[in-house]
Each structure stands twice: as structure tokens, then as C-alpha cells.
């Protein structure tokens, strides 16, 4: 049994270390790009692209000559979004683009009063002269992917932008993005997510830190190295021809955005990521909402690994490097499974810590601390891009990163179950992430009961609590060891989720 514990722990640490080097490679590339940027590029990201493509949407609009501008369809997939749908529609009709070139599709699958709000709002906008189309489904076949696919034949635009219900695109969004997709080889352009409620709670700050790293280091790093990136489901624009050529939207995974992204890039389409263009959105403000989003994202990632692992391996046009980075990309959700495994193994490892017989294992395992340093560097770059490089912000980063690690570990049970279900290709419904727009009291989308994940977290909390008690009661176990620190951080993360889950129900 001891050999099994040490072997599984060693393999787990090795896999985390390997993944951290993929993250480090992206961080180094991102850092190199940012270091070489000129002030002019940072302040005016549109100009260099306009001259390259001979397309300046801003000048065309200002000159009053709109004939050469392409028609753009904006698709807005909605399902039960009482608190944010008005805000979304107001933002979309405020886009600085000729009204005769703007086609809006509201894809409403709602089953609550949202459909009445949407219908009333759409009628008002139609009367105001907007070309806006309301498509209401009652079956939800294929969920979000099904709604996007059903609406695509009616899309008038050569280009199709997608915004989820909680997004508030800036009025200049299209004018900044369109010049980057006029090249016929570009199939999709993704923009950065902003955060409307970053400072609302520790939970939103932690989510913002995670997304900031993704939308700086990972997206720009992969894109600059020529590897596959993904459409993030919203705040991006597609060439309609690319969607159709890649096989259209498909609902056989929970992350239809990642699925279509890989199919399109395997067909030879190029993607572009714009860090300079930011689209503000609302972060899930409750534990239950965050759980459902994390479950969908992580299950979808493992589902897509199962779907594309063989295709990537057999593809003769992709470099070995791109294949490896794609595998790391599709398997990143599986890290939670490793974290959960290490959490379960931490108690027996703690008891083996002071054994002379196994001293070599624990000495060698300290090398894997390099993985933590690699992740710190990557997350620091994402944090620095948002807040700067001052001494104060460095201290703020250290504090928030420790909290981030604890809460991320706390989600390991939820996310590991998602990963397992994804790899086993067990089907499950698309559970939307409810957005609240600061409305928390008497919110109809709040969950009223605890699910299986909650009780598994309580069970693991008790198990880790027992391990911590044993370590403290028997001081010989080494309270300064990495294992004990990991165990305590995991315990704190679980405690945070459990306590806040209880408070939300009240």
C-alpha cells in the first residue's frame, strides 16, 4: 500500500510539473511580446492593422460612406436572464455601427418571464428602426449550440458576433474588431473579457485572477506561437463561412465554443486574439453559480479531449509542438483530478513524512515546487497587466494568489466529477450560469438545496481536518512541510465553499 501511495503521488506531481512548463512557455512568450510593445501600439492597436489590411472602418463611418462596410449579425443566446437581458440589448443597439448594416438576432429559449421582457424590448427596438429578429425555441435541442445553429441560416451578415446575456460590449467594439477579420484566412477573432463586479467578493476576485491569466498569458501566448486558441463562447466574431465549413455548431459537448474552435482550426482556418479590446461582463457572484459554470467548462474540456485526441494525433499538417500544446490545452481541466487525488493522499503522505525509509522520496519531491513558481510567474503577468507593477500591487498579488490557490483547491471535488464524466462521455444537460446583476435577495435563480457535490466536500473536509489534527497532535509529522501546507490550504478552500454555500441558502 505504501508503494502505491508514493507511486501515485510521484506520478501526480510529475504531471503537474510537466503542465507547468507548458504554462511557463506561454508566459515567457507573452512577457517577450509585452516587453517589445511600443507605446504607440498600446495606445492605438487599430492603426497598424488598418494599414496592413487597407480597411479603416472608423474613417468609412465618419465619411458617411457605408456602402463598403460589411453587414454584421449579432447573435444573443438567452435562457432565463431576467436581471441582465435589458442591459445587454441596450448595449448592443448602442454599438457604433451603421444601423442599416447591423442585424441583431435574439435567440431566446427562456421558460420564465424573460421571454415577455425580451418580446417587449424587441418590439420597441424594431419600432426604433433596428433590424432585430426574435427567435424563440421551446425545445432547447442542443442547448446554446442548438440555438446558434438554428439561427445561422437566417443571419444576414458575412460576419457573426456572439454575446452572452451578461456582457456589455463597448460602443466601439465592432470598429476595433472588424479590421482584424477582413483577411479571408481569419475565421474568428476573440476579444478579452473585462469584469463588471471584480471587487464584489473574494470569489469574484479569484475568478477574475484566473480569467485575467487566461486572457493574457494563455490566449496571446498560444496565438503568438501559432498554436490553437479557442473562442470563449462570447465577445468574439466569426466569419459565417468558417462556421459552416467547420461543420456548424454541435451540441455533443458542454463547451460548443471549444469544439467549433478546434474543428475550424483543424480545417486550416486562422484565429486572432485581441488583448487590447475588452468586453466587460459579470462574474458569477455565488458559489452555486460558480459551481455550475466550472462544472460545464471542465466537463466540456475533457469531452473535447476525447473528441479530438485522435484527430490531432493523425493530422499530418500540424507540428508536433502544436499537437503537444493542444493536448495540454484540452487536458488542463484534468489538473483538478490530480489535485483531488493529492488531497486524498495527503493524509497518508503526512504520516510517512518522518519515516527514514521514505526520506529520499520527500527530498526529491521538493523539486516539484518549481511547478508552483511557474504558475506564480504566469498569474503575476496576468495580474500585472491589469493593475501594474508597483510594490503595493505586488503585495496585493501575493495575498490574492494564496487565496486563489485555496479556493481553486476547494473546487477540486466539483471539477473532478465534471472531468470524470467528460472523459467517460456521460451526457448531461447544459446547466446555465445564472447572472444576478447585483440582485441577490429573493433571487429566483438561487438554488434551494444541497447537491451531492456539497456533501462530498463536507466528507473531504472532515477527512482533511482529521489529517491536520493528527499532524498537530503528533508534532513529528513536520508542520512546516509542503504536504501539511497543501493540506491546510485545501481545508481552508473547502471550508470557504461550504460555509458560503450554507449562507447562500439562508
Describe the structure.
By secondary structure, the chain is of the alpha/beta class. It is built from 20 helices and 7 strands. 44% of the residues are buried. Mean pLDDT is 91; it is low at 42-63.
List keywords for this structure.
alpha/beta, 10% strand
Number of helices: 20
Number of strand segments: 7
Could you describe the largest sheet, including whether it forms a barrel? 7 strands, mixed
Q: How is the largest sheet built, in terms of strand order?
A: 3-2-1-4-6-5-7
Q: What percentage of residues falls in helices of 4 or more residues? A: 55-70%
Shape: globular
- Give the end-to-end Cα distance, rounded to a whole number of Å: 44 Å
Radius of gyration: 24 Å
| Beta-strand residue percentage | 5-15%
Topology summary:
Elements: H1 2-36, H2 39-43, H3 45-53, H4 57-63, E1 72-78, H5 85-93, E2 102-108, H6 114-127, E3 131-136, H7 143-151, E4 159-162, H8 173-177, E5 186-195, H9 202-225, E6 236-239, H10 240-245, H11 256-266, E7 270-281, H12 287-314, H13 320-330, H14 335-352, H15 359-365, H16 369-387, H17 391-410, H18 412-423, H19 452-473, H20 482-505
Helix pairs in contact: 1-9, 1-14, 1-16, 5-6, 9-16, 9-17, 11-12, 12-13, 12-18, 14-18, 14-19, 14-20, 16-17, 17-20, 19-20
Amino acid at each position: 500500500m505504501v508503494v502505491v501511495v508514493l507511486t501515485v503521488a510521484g506520478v501526480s506531481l510529475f504531471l503537474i510539473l510537466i503542465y507547468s512548463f507548458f504554462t511557463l512557455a506561454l508566459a515567457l512568450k507573452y512577457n517577450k511580446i509585452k516587453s517589445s510593445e511600443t507605446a504607440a501600439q498600446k495606445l492605438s492597436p487599430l492603426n497598424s492593422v488598418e494599414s496592413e489590411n487597407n480597411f479603416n472602418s472608423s474613417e468609412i463611418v465618419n465619411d458617411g460612406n457605408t456602402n463598403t462596410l460589411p453587414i454584421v449579425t449579432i447573435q444573443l443566446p438567452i435562457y432565463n436572464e431576467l436581471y441582465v437581458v435589458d442591459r445587454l440589448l441596450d448595449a448592443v443597439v448602442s454599438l457604433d455601427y451603421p444601423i442599416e448594416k447591423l442585424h441583431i438576432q435574439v435567440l431566446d429559449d427562456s421558460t420564465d418571464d424573460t421571454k415577455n421582457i425580451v418580446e417587449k424590448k424587441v418590439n420597441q427596438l424594431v419600432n426604433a428602426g433596428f433590424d432585430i429578429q426574435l427567435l424563440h425555441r421551446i425545445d432547447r435541442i442542443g442547448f446554446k449550440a442548438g440555438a446558434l445553429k438554428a439561427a445561422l441560416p437566417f443571419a444576414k451578415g458575412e460576419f457573426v458576433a456572439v454575446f452572452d446575456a451578461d456582457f456589455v460590449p463597448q460602443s466601439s467594439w465592432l470598429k476595433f474588431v472588424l479590421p482584424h477579420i477582413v483577411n479571408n484566412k481569419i475565421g474568428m477573432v476573440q476579444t478579452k473579457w473585462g469584469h463588471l463586479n471584480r471587487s464584489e467578493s473574494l470569489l469574484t476576485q479569484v475568478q477574475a485572477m484566473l480569467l485575467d491569466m487566461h486572457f493574457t498569458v494563455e490566449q496571446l501566448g498560444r496565438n503568438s506561437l501559432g498554436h490553437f486558441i479557442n473562442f470563449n463562447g462570447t465577445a468574439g466574431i466569426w466569419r459565417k463561412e468558417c462556421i459552416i465549413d467547420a461543420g456548424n455548431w454541435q451540441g455533443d459537448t458542454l463547451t460548443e465554443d471549444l469544439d467549433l474552435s478546434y474543428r475550424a482550426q483543424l480545417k486550416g482556418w486562422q484565429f486572432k486574439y485581441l488583448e487590447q479590446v475588452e468586453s466587460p461582463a459579470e462574474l458569477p457572484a455565488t458559489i452555486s453559480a460558480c459551481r455550475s459554470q466550472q462544472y460545464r467548462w471542465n466537463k466540456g474540456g475533457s469531452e473535447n479531449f476525447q473528441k479530438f485526441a485522435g484527430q490531432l494525433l493523425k493530422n499530418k499538417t500540424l507540428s508536433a509542438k502544436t499537437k503537444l500544446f493542444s493536448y495540454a490545452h484540452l487536458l488542463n481541466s484534468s489538473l483538478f483530478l490530480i489535485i483531488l487525488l493529492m488531497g486524498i493522499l495527503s493524509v497518508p503522505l503526512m504520516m510517512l513524512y518522518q519515516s527514514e525509509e521514505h526520506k529520499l522520496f520527500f527530498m526529491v519531491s521538493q523539486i516539484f515546487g518549481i511547478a508552483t513558481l511557474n504558475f506564480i510567474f504566469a498569474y503575476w503577468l496576468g495580474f500585472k497587466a491589469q493593475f501594474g507593477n508597483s510594490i503595493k500591487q505586488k503585495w496585493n498579488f501575493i495575498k490574492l494568489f494564496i487565496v486563489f490557490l485555496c479556493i481553486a483547491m476547494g473546487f477540486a471535488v466539483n471539477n473532478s466529477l465534471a472531468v470524470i464524466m467528460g472523459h467517460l462521455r456521460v451526457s448531461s444537460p447544459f446547466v446555465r450560469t445564472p447572472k444576478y446583476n447585483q440582485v441577490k435577495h429573493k433571487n429566483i435563480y438561487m438554488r434551494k438545496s444541497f447537491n451531492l457535490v456539497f456533501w462530498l466536500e463536507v466528507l473531504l473536509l472532515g477527512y482533511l481536518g482529521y489529517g491536520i489534527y493528527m499532524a498537530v497532535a503528533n508534532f513529528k509529522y513536520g508542520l512546516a512541510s509542503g504536504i501539511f501546507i497543501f493540506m491546510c490550504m485545501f481545508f481552508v478552500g473547502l471550508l470557504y465553499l461550504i460555509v458560503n454555500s450554507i449562507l447562500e441558502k439562508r
